[in-house]
Protein: DUF3185 domain-containing protein
Organism: Methylophilus medardicus
Amino acid sequence: MIGIILIALGTAGLLLKGFSYESKETVAKIGSLEASAEISKDVSIPQPLSIIVLVAGVGFLLVGLKK
C-alpha cells in the first residue's frame, strides 16, 4: 500500500512540478486596525525528489510482491 502511494506522489510531482496556494496575511497593524492581503505563494517540487520518491515506491512494491 505504501509503495502505491509513493508511486502516485512521485508521478504527481513529476507531472505537476509544483503548486500554488493563497494565504491571508496581516500586512500592517496600527492599534486595533489591521490591514490584510491575499498573498499567492508558489511551491516548486524538485524533480530529483520526485524521482527518488517514485523509485522508493517501486522498491516497496517489489518487496511487497516477493513476500
Summary: The longest helix spans residues 47-66. The CA atoms of residues 7 and 54 lie 5 Å apart.
